Amino acid sequence: MTLPLPDNEDVRFIYENIDTHTDWFKDSLCMIASENLVSPLTRQLQVSDFTDRYAEGLPGKRYYNGNTYVDRVETRVEEIAKRLFNAPEADVRPISGTTANISAFFSFIKPGELYFAPHLNDGAHISSAKFGAGGLRGGNEMTYVWDKDLMNIDIDATRKLLLEHRPKLCLFGRSVFLFPAPLKELRDTLQEIDCHVWYDGAHVLGLIAGKRFQDPLREGAHIITGSTHKTLPGPQGGVILGNPKDEDQWKAIRRRVFPGTHSSHHLMTMSAKGIAFAEHIEFGEQYADQIIRNAQAFAQALHERGFTVLGEKHGFTKSHAMVLDVSEQGGGAICADDLETANMITNKNLIPDDPGTAMRPSGLRLGAQELTRIGMRESHMAEVAELFRRILIGREDPLKVKEDVIKLKSDFQSIHYCFTPDQPAYHKWRII
Ligand SMILES: Cc1ncc(COP(=O)(O)O)c(C=O)c1O
What we know:
Elements: H1 9-26, E1 29-30, H2 40-44, E2 57-58, E3 61-62, H3 68-85, E4 89-91, H4 97-108, E5 114-117, H5 133-136, E6 140-143, E7 146-147, E8 152-153, H6 155-165, E9 169-172, H7 183-193, E10 196-200, H8 205-209, H9 216-219, E11 223-227, E12 238-242, H10 247-261, H11 267-304, E13 308-309, E14 321-325, H12 332-341, E15 344-345, E16 347-349, E17 363-367, H13 369-373, H14 378-392, H15 398-409
Parallel strand pairs: 1-15, 5-6, 5-9, 9-10, 10-11
Antiparallel strand pairs: 2-3, 4-12, 7-8, 11-12, 13-14, 14-17, 16-17
């Protein structure tokens, strides 16, 4: 059902722009590494009576009435999350990866205390930085030593630094997350300094749940925070999973989620997360497998066409993500703009030792998870790499290449790896 639009300029403006956006994305190849498409069953639940309700606290301990069925659903969604991640604890209330991270910082450190996190140039998320949630908490940040050939933490040098500075908290996980974090390798040191071990799995949550990346809760992490909408293709939201060192650690997390950083969480999203988790239990391994195959095929095809793909020493990537150094092609900003003109959506990104700035960096970040979600496989990755080459190396007119992008995309219009396959992937506002 669709509602007729009223004769109101503001309403029409908003609806019409979303209409145009959706038509554009239907014709585009989307490679932002932090995005994905929700399944039809997940999308449907974003509009229910839960959309209009409040629930503060935990199931059975609410501050409002009317939560009988909310409590039943939330208890079940927590249980599904624990099953999916084989996690002793789960909190499904955070409304984003960032609010989950703020909750973690406020649980684990006090102002002035030292924490370790990756450097922004080495792929950290802004929430871990001085001007993000870490700084908001007043924490003192030190960054891991980075091995840019391996595109990973330098284990020996970091071990030394940890023993010397003995931080209260070590945060692993990044927004440019090509290879598993060396949790196992640093485990003894982390235990020796007795710090909180926090793994930000926002990007790789779906790969972890699909058993194809690493298993942080068994490798020494006390908690995982994450977004529920990246490689885990659910609604935009957050989650915290725990294998805490003691009861107090998990209690602190719970208290920082509510009342620390949220009032009511978003019930429509909480319920939709449950559907996405249930679908991932069923299809996640197959999906994660194909994402990684596609990312590796894409990286290889780009390398063969003359691009500088980072992480070559270890086969470019073991996740959904890839990073290119495009300084020879004009830099990340120009390349991302040219690709966008041809309906290929990517983002500019800092790379290790980048001489540029966040707005004018040398790199380009790509993700294969959304192309995989619509059914693409390794051979299609080579086709996409060729479209990149034509624009960024062959200097063909992006508007001409766009015609071929639209042609390729026309065969990939439905969602895979879900309970209702073959349903359209792109929706305007006609969802009820
Ligand atoms: C490593 C990492 N952590 C946290 C976040 C924040 O997640 P959200 O956008 O759900 O707030 C991101 C976002 O991309 C991320 O890359």
